[in-house]
Design goal:
The complex is a heterodimer. Chain A is an all-beta fold. Chain A has strands spanning 23-32, 35-47, 61-68, 71-78, 84-91, 93-94, 114-115. Chain A has a single domain, classed as SH3 type barrels. The radius of gyration of chain A is 15 Å and the shape is globular. By secondary structure, chain B is mainly beta. The two termini of chain B are 21 Å apart. Classes of the chains: A mainly beta, B mainly beta.
Chain lengths: 117, 208
């Protein structure tokens, strides 16, 4: 028996398929004291993907990078975390590698990702 | 119920997400169902315990078959656990994983993975020698094992290479995250000894 299949852990159904290079909006549940609200985090997926026909490892993650007020911010989300309400893809990117760490060294027009059509 | 533990089979490790999004590493164990094979009373045996059997056996020798006759099953593994309220137990009765509840403090006894004849670096955590600066054949060597003419021998107990693993190991202070009697499944926070499919004893423990 495989321990990874025992708990039926899977990503939220409201998660759209995405690949590295895509621009996504991640809606994350945030707890503020007693209140719970949903915060949107938009950026480029630089590591990780989600396909509906593939069951990920329970510990799988994806990384979303955005430049906020001139500062690069990368957030790592567990793909199967119950705190992720949904993921929406706003733009599909055309990239040649699976991990876009090269974006860290680039700014402005150099840091653009071509659109996939 | 008054039994202090059960036998289980390690399934492996996975990730469990709490509702607040915290990911915790858990070990899945198939615990029970175990069948009572013998009840030991202080009147007859001098102490109180319940012996249970786990997993079906294909072959039994005559003495074992005779011992298990009244329980109505054939078992590969037998283990005694301390028990209270012995009146609740009778031979042949099935005990499921619901003796544990989420939040219980437990200990797990298992047999660690055998590592064969292991060197000092793996077995005792020695650092080994330098990798560079002209070193040859010293990368995983133990270094000095003692002084010279005095005492002129190696002290007993000096840590050296040898057989490592495949011993009985107890991990205390583990926490039950989930216990599901229907699926015979218990999730425990953290790691337990041994390989997947290894037989372990899951025992209740006082919480401190």
């Amino acid at each position: 028996m495989d321990a990874r299949q025992i708990l039926d852990i899977k990503p939220s159904d409201a998660m759209e398929e995405f690949r590295p290079g895509d621009t996504v909006i991640v809606n994350v549940r945030i707890r503020e004291g007693e209140r719970e609200r949903v915060q949107a985090y938009q950026g480029n997926v630089i590591v990780g993907s989600h396909r509906k026909d593939h069951i990920p490892q329970p510990g799988a993650t994806f990384t979303v990078r955005r430049v906020s007020y001139g500062v690069g911010v990368e957030r790592i989300f567990p793909l199967c975390s119950p705190m992720i309400e949904s993921v929406k893809v706003t733009r599909r990117g055309k990239v040649r590698r699976a991990r876009l760490f090269y974006l860290r060294g680039l700014t402005g027009r150099k840091a653009r990702i071509k659109e996939r059509r | 119920m008054g039994i202090q533990g059960l036998l289980g089979r390690k399934i492996g490790m996975t990730t469990h997400y709490r509702e607040n999004g915290v990911a915790i590493p858990v070990t899945a164990i198939e615990v029970g169902p175990c069948v009572v094979t013998q009840v030991k009373t202080s009147a007859r045996d001098g102490y109180e315990a319940v012996q249970v059997g786990f997993l079906p056996a294909t072959m039994l020798n005559k003495p074992a078959a005779g011992h298990l006759e009244r329980s109505g099953g054939k078992f590969r593994h037998l283990q005694e656990f301390k028990a209270t309220d012995l009146g609740d137990f009778e031979v042949g009765q099935e005990i499921k994983a619901d003796v544990f509840t989420a939040g219980d403090t437990i200990k797990v006894v298992g047999r660690s993975k055998g590592r064969g004849f292991a060197g000092n670096v793996k077995r005792h955590g020695f650092r080994g020698g330098p990798k560079t600066h002209g070193q040859s054949d010293r990368h995983r060597a133990p270094g000095s094992i003692g002084a010279g003419t005095s005492p002129g021998r190696v002290w007993p107990g000096t840590r050296m290479a040898g057989h490592y693993g495949n011993t009985k190991v107890t991990v205390r202070g583990l926490t039950v995250v989930l216990a599901d009697a229907e699926r015979s499944l218990v999730l425990i926070k953290g790691a337990i000894p041994g390989h997947a499919n290894g037989i372990v004893q899951v025992q209740k423990q006082r919480s401190y």
